[in-house]
From TrEMBL, chains A, B:
UniProt-listed Pfam families: MerR_1
NCBIfam families: CadR-PbrR (TIGR02047)
Keyword Disulfide bond: no
GO biological process, one term: positive regulation of DNA-templated transcription
GO molecular function, one term: DNA-binding transcription factor activity
CDD domains linked: HTH_CadR-PbrR
Location of the HTH merR-type domain: 1-69
Coiled coil: 88-118
Gene3D superfamilies (alphabetical): 1.10.1660.10
Native species: Denitromonas halophila
UniProt keywords, alphabetically: Coiled coil, DNA-binding
Protein name: Cd(II)/Pb(II)-responsive transcriptional regulator
Amino acid sequence: MRIGELAQSCCVDADTIRFYEKRGLLPPPQRQSNGYRSFDTQHVERLAFIRHCRALDMSLAEIQRLLDAGSHPDADCGDINALIDNHLDTLRQRIASMQALEQQLQALRSRCGEHRAVEACGILNELTAVAIGSVSDGAGVEIGPGADDGAGER
Amino acid sequence: MRIGELAQSCCVDADTIRFYEKRGLLPPPQRQSNGYRSFDTQHVERLAFIRHCRALDMSLAEIQRLLDAGSHPDADCGDINALIDNHLDTLRQRIASMQALEQQLQALRSRCGEHRAVEACGILNELTAVAIGSVSDGAGVEIGPGADDGAGER
DNA sequence: TGAAACCCTGAAGCCACTCCAGGGTCAACC
DNA sequence: GGTTGACCCTGGAGTGGCTTCAGGGTTTCA
């Protein structure tokens, strides 16, 4: 099966498949005489697994760990459980902070009902006032969800 | 005020301040004779504003739009309202999809209570089975929140 | 005097792709 | 035989919001 066919069967972009191969998530497929990739059913299953995990919002590094675990069937599955638990914890924290954010934004939005001059806009005034207040507090500001997803460990 | 002092007063990394300057969110400060940046209170307020908006998870582009609006005090504030409304919508959608995800992950986690051999691990088996099922369906898999935040417009 | 803390610039790295340029290959059609 | 269009290849750059690094200069304090 060529890359286009695989892409279609898993609803993935061909570029994404090449990307997974380069990252080592998919084993390098055989090549036809013209250099085209030739995938087999193992690749299909593996790609589907990867996409399913991605749909559960796992990172490629986490998926790699699952794939590694899968290739040691006799090992203990504690790592897998820990991975999922960890993932769930992070997710729940993110949901909580996004809900808090929603409250704040909703309160902010209620500051300006209709169109006014920018000068009189409750939203902009509120944003400015809170920002200035936080400086004179010396409190600083916590950056919300998504912005810093604990990615860079270096 | 030098960059370190500004950084501390807003709880921001000095690198982040240089980054905002490069991106045009902060106006270029004056320079001392040795080349060090010299910030004034306007910079402090502006930086605090930016950080506050970032804490509300706005993108730098959105913040730029707010700053632009702020510098035209006589204009109509409809744009600002629309921006916040839009932001709220996106946020609510993300929360909903993350909650759905939480359900799925919780169900998955309940497949394996304690330590077993990987081979017998309910989590891994479930992941594999669902993935293979979705291929034979020809259904493909939807990628969840965060992964594709409508970034690339090009 | 020397060490530590601060500052500078420019570039590269992170994540998970996506898109592009500039080419090759292949089948169908005229 | 030529052309068109769909597919494939590689390598590199771009996305957002920073962070880290390399390799220097400056200031401050003991």
